[in-house]
From TrEMBL:
Protein name per Swiss-Prot or TrEMBL: SDR family oxidoreductase
High-level lineage: Bacteria, Bacillati, Actinomycetota, Actinomycetes, Kitasatosporales
Keywords attached to this entry: Oxidoreductase
Pfam families: adh_short (PF00106)
GO MF entries: oxidoreductase activity
Family per similarity comment: Belongs to the short-chain dehydrogenases/reductases (SDR) family.
Species: Streptomyces triticiradicis
Length: 254
């Protein structure tokens, strides 16, 4: 187990199930004091009771101060995990776009804004952003999700390059399909693209712990994503043509 986890004060948002619950369990197993956050108070309490943590229900954008108080005034690790998997195209209602932007990007910005003064003063802190492979690549049938996950990745990257020399560690987790409620909600696009290689949430937690141990920014629970990312950068037109072929294949299943 990673030594930096021992005794750390950890906050995990969106931890009532899926990846967030797996992260909370793994940190608690390593000896961390864990705040379990979720919009659903009952789900947050169930996970917190299971791991001996502290449940703090509510909007992930608004609970940072309460969670810090629950940990005795110090957050060592903040996992910005809560997210929404908004599907749709450019024609999606503006409320869908606004929610995706607020949860997938601005919640991270607000948390960092609250946490950074203390972290910079004491020269240490760890920000974990659950992004998605969609933040490095893209996802067919899900414009709001893809665009805002690109934003989440960009913000994590900016945090790292801006504050790493001042002791702030940042990790961006970018899995493809993970067997969660969110994956089930992706419908036929998820069935085509994500389900064949989907992994369990516990595998994402394993990848994070290994990434923390190795002090890596980019954490890829699906290692093949590195090759896709390199191909996208090396020849964007060919990559987009291949993705368009996937789009056309999906359209024939609709």
């Amino acid at each position: 187990m990673v030594e930096t986890v021992q005794g750390a004060g950890v906050v995990v948002t969106g931890a009532g199930g899926g990846i967030g619950a797996a992260l909370a369990r793994r940190f608690a197993a390593g000896g961390a004091r864990v705040v379990v956050n979720d919009l659903d108070a009952d789900r947050a309490k169930a996970v917190a009771d299971e791991i001996g943590g502290i449940a703090v229900a509510g909007d992930a954008s608004l609970i940072v101060t309460e969670a810090r108080d629950a940990l005795g005034g110090t957050v060592d690790v903040y996992c910005a995990n809560a997210g929404v998997g908004s599907g749709g195209s450019e024609a999606a209602d503006e409320s869908v776009w606004a929610l995706a932007w607020d949860v997938n990007v601005m919640a991270h910005v607000r948390a960092a804004h609250t946490l950074l003064p203390d972290w910079l003063e004491r020269g240490g802190g760890r920000f974990v952003s659950t992004v998605s492979a969609a933040g490095l690549l893209t996802m067919i049938g899900a414009a709001p999700y893809s665009v805002t996950k690109h934003g989440a990745y960009a913000f994590a990257e900016w945090l790292s390059l801006t504050y790493r020399h001042r002791g702030v560690k940042v990790h961006a987790i970018c899995p493809q399909g993970v067997r969660t409620d969110m994956l089930q909600a992706t419908g036929s696009a998820g069935d085509l693209v994500l389900q064949p290689t989907a992994i369990e949430p516990e595998a994402v937690a394993d990848a994070l712990m290994k990434g923390i141990e190795e002090d890596r920014f980019l954490i890829l629970p699906h290692p093949e994503v590195a090759g896709y990312y390199q191909a996208r950068a090396a020849d964007p037109d060919r990559w987009m043509m291949n993705m368009n072929h996937l789009q056309q294949k999906w359209e024939t299943t609709e």
